[in-house]
């Protein structure tokens, strides 16, 4: 076990970045190898972290703490629990694979990989930081690399997509910043997230701002900040654009990791620091989840661009997770004290975050594969590709079926958990959102049929099948999807204790506050 | 303290004056290279600063029969002014706009401005306030119009004079009303007298303070006294623009803070202060609204600019607005945050203007179009400019974020009645992102890899590095700046 393993995980990409800056730009292979090594080591360490993780405890592990700016009580504090560990592994895995997805990039490689590594550090940092200031800095560090990666290496509308992404996220960030400062001053001058979790419920109890409960105001500000990243309807309009215009590897990261940051933030901050308001907001959360499910599915149905279809399906998938998250209140006395349902809902939501990470990453990689060969993504512009690219068609089937939630693949398990968790409390919402599953199946199957079956389009009679490098990026994800679909226990074991802590917190404090 | 005793505390300023006088003579002997005067002035400044540093021991006293304060607050601003002046003098050597002009007077005027600001930041007497503002203004009028052959520069100078004369006239009127009401020109005596005024004087006091605010507002270019800013900034030689956007603004804030804390409040910096109730005007709300209007206007108009230099002019108005946010609280944290913001702002704003100058030297313009593909042609300048733009927006981990963070924190600390102000500030940060990123977009999103890369000259590269390093480092570890600011939070007051 490496000492300060979390710091290593967070800062390894930056080490790689610095190394890349010293390599002349002509040596393209060296640059790529450095990036691969840095993210590969990071993945290895993330796996070490997982192997050494004590899943019988719901508290933070591998903690690190150092003074940073004592005069403002800012410290450098890291730690992981069952909620952040899966996200760390997902981030490390996708970052490593994304390096190989972008292997053929030829424009300004040095800048591309340097920015990519910076992005990696930012994402990782958010998942492991336990100091709110540090959390915010990492949150913001992601923006600039993302802006450049979309804006410089993206598709035709890249400039618009990049600035739209930046502006949307910054609106969320500044709201979050205000909320962070408000928490700091009301909870005894601290950014320490563990202390805030303890103090905030009492410190804010009964505080009124302009006649509104301070807890609710802060909750909403934080929620909007995170909801923009998820994205929750109506803050979703940046997503299809950014996903479609971004280069493949960046779409993978956007869908696989960045969307999770929003949900992670809600669970880490809103749920643990302001649990009273969870009861107040759970109904709205479920409704927003429902809107995401239906709206995302309907929009996906209307798309002719395969990448856009996948992008909208992400909105749909995030909806399930939101519904699962809302189910947490089921454990309270007021809502029937159904602890198992709450567990199922919350674990389902976290599991859905992870599964969407693997499945949508697969989908985006596969879209990239066909785009690189055919130079378009129009669903109706293909036909009969299965004959020409049998392996590709096979892998795509796993990804598409994963996306539509076929039993036996991991997506099904998590969606199912979200639903059974939420069913006791939000019956109507769960029932209506099953329509989303139907729609999901409809558009994924129809897209699959139009692309892979039927007469082989003459234009594509010479398309080469998926190559080894591309397979290398998809196969690990496909295996995970299969494995967790059949045997989700290892994953659920990791998160169980943390979920229980979360539920206890919400239920205990929420019932005291009586909201 | 009597005049003779005061001299012991006044060596830095005396050295500066001596430098100015000798520089005028020295200028007569520099036929071929008038930039040597700049070096002479530079030496004088650094000498003055070193002596100030060596002799400064935290003493708080008044000099020259209570006209000037000698306190850590003033030394903080003097240091800030000195650093900015050093940067501007050095960069002026590299400025192509000044080619073909004799630059002796140019450097001398800069030194006079610096001296004026030394006075401004320490004055605690109405007459000294007026005199010091005039010293700074008049030398900057000339500097703005230094490019005799440029129509723009002439226009800028003339506009500056007219607005300057108008606002200083207003201020003088305000000062004389205050004198009439209180019978004194000294801050501390005025404070006592205002506390004892009867209600009948409210209107006069209100009028006087509004008029005085016009004078300060002009210096920090706050709305509605900002009209001169864009034209002057655009027409003046770029180093002077950079200088105007940093040093006099800082000095203006010093004066503003000192004036409000010493005259209109009931306490000093270390005790919680309240606005004096004798003034009927709702000062906190008024300044808060002014701050919001200032930043919103600055940002909204900056979005529409096609010239980067002009855009930066509006952006500097917006930044004045951010800093003004922390004034109405009259709190120690508020002053603290403004001081910290000014340090961060100095590095990033000087840097941004220096990049504009570099681009003008190499590409020949300062329009947004001239920045097209700059990141590919001049990679170093592109990266540096990106950092400055991010910092001006306030994206971590840059110095600009830390400045904003402290200002927001100070406002939030003051309680929920000011939360709307923070929201306005936050929305404005987002607005500003749009136009700052437009520069970045121009530099990178169009154009492609170039075989031949251009770099600025050695000195300019060095200066840019000296500005970009603090912009990043203070965004990550700003404890030294924070400590410096904390130790400067003391100024002369008479606490009742």
Plain-language structure description:
The complex is a heterodimer of chains A (515) and B (496). Chain A is mainly alpha-helical and 515 residues long. Chain A has a domain at 275-515. Chain A has helices at residues 5-21, 28-51, 84-101, 109-128, 132-141, 143-153, 158-186, 193-204, 214-229, 238-245, 248-273, 276-301, 306-326, 339-374, 385-388, 390-404, 410-422, 427-452, 468-486, 489-513; strands at 61-69, 74-80, 208-209, 212-213. In chain A, the strands form two sheets. Chain A has a two-stranded antiparallel sheet. In chain A, strand 3 and strand 4 (212-213) form a beta hairpin. In chain A, helix 12 packs antiparallel against helix 13 (306-326) and helix 14 (339-374) runs antiparallel to helix 17 (410-422). Chain B has 496 residues and is mainly alpha-helical. Helices cover 71% and strands 1% of the residues of chain B. Chain B has 20 helices and two strands. Chain B has helices at residues 3-6, 11-27, 36-55, 72-92, 104-122, 126-144, 151-182, 187-195, 202-220, 228-235, 238-263, 283-303, 308-324, 332-363, 374-377, 379-393, 399-413, 419-444, 458-476, 479-487; strands spanning 61-63, 68-70. The radius of gyration of chain B is 22 Å and the shape is globular. The two termini of chain B are 20 Å apart. The mean pLDDT of chain B is 88. The chains are: A mainly alpha (515), B mainly alpha (496). The A-B interface holds A 25, 68-72, 107-108, 136-137, 140-141, 143-144, 147-148, 151-152, 158-159, 162-163, 166-167, 170-171, 174-175, 177-178, 181-182, 184-185, 209-210, 214 and B 390, 395-397, 401, 405, 408-409, 412-413, 416, 419, 422-423, 426-427, 429-430, 433-434, 437, 441, 444-445, 448-449, 477-479, 482-483, 486.
């Amino acid at each position: 076990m490496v000492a300060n393993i979390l710091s290593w995980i967070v800062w390894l990409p930056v080490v790689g970045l610095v190394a890349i800056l010293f390599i002349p730009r002509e040596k393209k292979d060296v640059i790529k190898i450095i990036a691969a090594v840095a993210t590969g080591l990071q993945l290895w360490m993330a796996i070490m972290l997982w192997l050494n993780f004590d899943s019988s405890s719901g508290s933070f592990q591998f903690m690190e703490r150092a003074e940073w700016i004592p005069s403002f009580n800012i410290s450098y504090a890291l730690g992981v629990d069952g909620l952040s560990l899966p996200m760390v592994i997902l981030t490390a895995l996708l970052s490593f694979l994304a390096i190989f997805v972008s292997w053929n990039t030829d424009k300004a490689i040095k800048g591309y990989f340097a920015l990519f590594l910076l992005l990696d550090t930012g994402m990782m940092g958010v998942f492991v930081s336990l100091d709110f200031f540090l959390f915010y800095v990492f949150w913001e560090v992601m923006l600039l690399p993302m802006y450049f990666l979309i804006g410089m290496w993206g598709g035709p509308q890249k400039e618009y997509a990049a600035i739209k992404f930046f502006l949307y996220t910054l609106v969320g960030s500044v709201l979050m910043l205000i909320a962070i400062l408000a928490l700091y001053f009301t909870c005894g001058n601290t950014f320490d997230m563990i202390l805030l979790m303890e103090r905030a419920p009492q410190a804010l109890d009964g505080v009124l701002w302009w006649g509104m409960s301070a807890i609710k105001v802060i909750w909403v500000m934080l929620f909007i900040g995170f909801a923009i990243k998820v994205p929750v309807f109506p803050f979703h309009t940046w997503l299809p654009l950014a996903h479609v215009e971004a280069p493949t590897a960046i779409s993978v990261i956007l869908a696989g990791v960045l969307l999770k940051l929003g949900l992670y933030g809600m669970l880490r901050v809103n749920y643990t620091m302001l649990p009273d308001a969870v009861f107040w907001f759970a109904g709205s959360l479920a409704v927003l989840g429902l809107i995401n499910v239906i709206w995302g599915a309907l929009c996906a149905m209307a798309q002719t661009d395969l990448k856009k279809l996948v992008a909208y399906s992400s909105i749909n998938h995030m909806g399930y997770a939101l519904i699962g998250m809302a189910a947490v209140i089921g454990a309270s006395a007021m809502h029937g004290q159904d602890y198992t349902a709450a567990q199922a809902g919350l674990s389902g939501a976290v599991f859905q975050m992870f599964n969407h990470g693997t499945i949508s990453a697969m989908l985006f990689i596969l879209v990239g594969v066909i785009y690189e060969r055919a130079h378009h993504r129009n669903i109706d512009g293909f036909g009969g590709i299965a004959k020409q690219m049998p392996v590709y068609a096979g892998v795509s089937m796993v990804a598409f079926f994963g996306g539509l939630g076929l039993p036996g693949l991991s997506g099904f398990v998590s969606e199912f958990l979200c639903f059974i968790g939420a069913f006791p409390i939000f019956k109507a919402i769960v029932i209506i959102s099953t329509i989303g599953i139907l729609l999901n199946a409809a558009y994924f199957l129809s897209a699959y049929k139009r692309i892979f079956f039927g007469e082989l389009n003459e234009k594509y009679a010479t398309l080469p099948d998926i190559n080894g490098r591309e397979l290398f990026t998809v196969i690990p994800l496909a295996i995970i999807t299969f494995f967790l679909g059949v045997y989700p226990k290892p994953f659920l074991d990791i998160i169980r204790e943390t979920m229980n802590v979360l539920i206890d917190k919400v239920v205990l404090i929420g019932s005291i506050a009586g909201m | 303290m009597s005049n003779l005793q005061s001299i012991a505390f006044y060596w830095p300023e005396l050295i500066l004056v001596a430098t100015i006088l000798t520089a005028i003579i020295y200028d007569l002997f520099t036929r071929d290279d008038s930039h040597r005067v700049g070096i002479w002035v530079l030496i004088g400044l650094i000498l003055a600063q070193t002596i100030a540093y060596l002799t400064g021991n935290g003493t708080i006293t008044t000099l020259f029969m209570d006209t000037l304060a000698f306190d850590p607050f003033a030394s903080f601003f003097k240091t800030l002014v000195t650093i900015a002046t050093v940067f501007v003098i050095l960069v002026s050597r590299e400025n192509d706009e000044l080619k073909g002009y004799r630059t002796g007077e140019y450097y001398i005027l800069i030194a006079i401005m610096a001296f004026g600001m030394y006075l401004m930041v320490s004055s605690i007497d109405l007459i000294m306030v007026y005199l010091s503002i005039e010293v700074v203004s008049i030398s900057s009028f000339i500097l703005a119009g230094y490019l005799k052959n440029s129509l723009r520069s002439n226009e800028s100078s003339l506009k500056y004079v007219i607005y300057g004369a108008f606002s200083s006239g207003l201020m003088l009127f305000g000062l004389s009303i205050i004198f009439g009401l209180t019978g004194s020109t000294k801050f501390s005596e005025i404070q006592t007298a205002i506390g004892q005024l009867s209600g009948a004087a409210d209107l006069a006091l209100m009028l006087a303070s509004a008029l005085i605010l016009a004078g300060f507002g002009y210096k920090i270019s706050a709305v509605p006294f900002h009209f001169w800013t864009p034209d002057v900034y655009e027409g003046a030689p770029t180093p002077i623009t950079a200088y105007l956007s940093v040093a006099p603004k800082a000095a203006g804030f010093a004066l503003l803070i000192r004036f409000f804390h010493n005259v209109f409040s009931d306490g000093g910096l270390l005790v919680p202060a309240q606005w004096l109730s004798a003034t009927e005007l709702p000062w906190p709300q008024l300044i808060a609204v002014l701050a919001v209007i200032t930043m919103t206007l600055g940002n909204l108009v900056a979005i529409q600019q096609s010239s980067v230099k002009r855009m930066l002019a509006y952006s500097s108005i917006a930044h004045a607005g951010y800093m003004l946010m922390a004034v109405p609280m009259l709190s120690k944290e508020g002053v603290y945050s403004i001081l910290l913001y000014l340090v961060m702002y100095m590095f990033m704003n000087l840097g941004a203007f220096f990049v504009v100058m570099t681009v003008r030297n190499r590409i020949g313009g300062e329009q947004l179009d001239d920045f097209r593909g700059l990141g590919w042609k001049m990679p170093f300048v592109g990266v540096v400019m990106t950092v400055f733009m991010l910092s001006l927006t306030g994206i971590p981990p840059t110095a600009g974020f830390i400045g904003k963070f402290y200002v927001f924190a100070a406002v939030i600390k003051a309680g929920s009645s000011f939360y709307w102000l923070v929201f306005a500030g936050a929305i404005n940060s987002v607005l500003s992102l749009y136009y700052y990123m437009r520069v970045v977009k121009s530099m990178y999103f169009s154009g492609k890899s170039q075989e031949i890369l251009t770099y600025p000259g050695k000195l300019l590269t060095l200066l840019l590095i000296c500005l970009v390093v603090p912009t990043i480092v203070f965004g990550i570890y700003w404890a030294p700046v924070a400590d410096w600011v904390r130790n400067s939070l003391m100024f002369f007051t008479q606490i009742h």
